């Protein structure tokens, strides 16, 4: 049984809109992750490494190769742990 001509235009429109929204969502999620695919099933160790990378590079996915393997001096004091001040 052939598809009526009147049904082709709405189905193409619906398919195109699904394609546009899917592509837009993919682009937005990749833009939020510095052009890399999103992470799935992240455990506590990976969350800790994400926080460490963010503190080192300023980006959640910033595992850039650095010329100097030594962290910035501010890295010693910008921990998320609250510490008591030593007098």
Automatic annotation (TrEMBL):
**What parts of the sequence cross the membrane?**
7-28
According to Swiss-Prot or TrEMBL, what is its membrane topology?
Single-pass membrane protein
Instruction: List where in the cell it is found.
Output: Mitochondrion inner membrane
Principal subcellular localisation of the protein: mitochondrion
Say what the protein does: Accessory subunit of the mitochondrial membrane respiratory chain NADH dehydrogenase (Complex I), that is believed not to be involved in catalysis. Complex I functions in the transfer of electrons from NADH to the respiratory chain. The immediate electron acceptor for the enzyme is believed to be ubiquinone.
Q: What family is reported?
A: Belongs to the complex I NDUFA1 subunit family.
UniProt protein name: NADH dehydrogenase [ubiquinone] 1 alpha subcomplex subunit 1
């Amino acid at each position: 049984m052939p598809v009526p001509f009147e049904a082709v235009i709405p189905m193409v429109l619906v398919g195109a809109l699904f394609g546009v929204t899917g592509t837009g969502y993919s682009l937005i999620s990749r833009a939020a992750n510095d052009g890399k695919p999103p992470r799935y099933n992240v455990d506590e160790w990976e969350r800790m490494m994400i926080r460490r990378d963010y503190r080192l590079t300023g980006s959640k996915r910033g595992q850039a190769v650095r010329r100097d393997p030594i962290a910035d001096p501010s890295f010693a004091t910008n921990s998320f742990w609250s510490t008591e001040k030593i007098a």
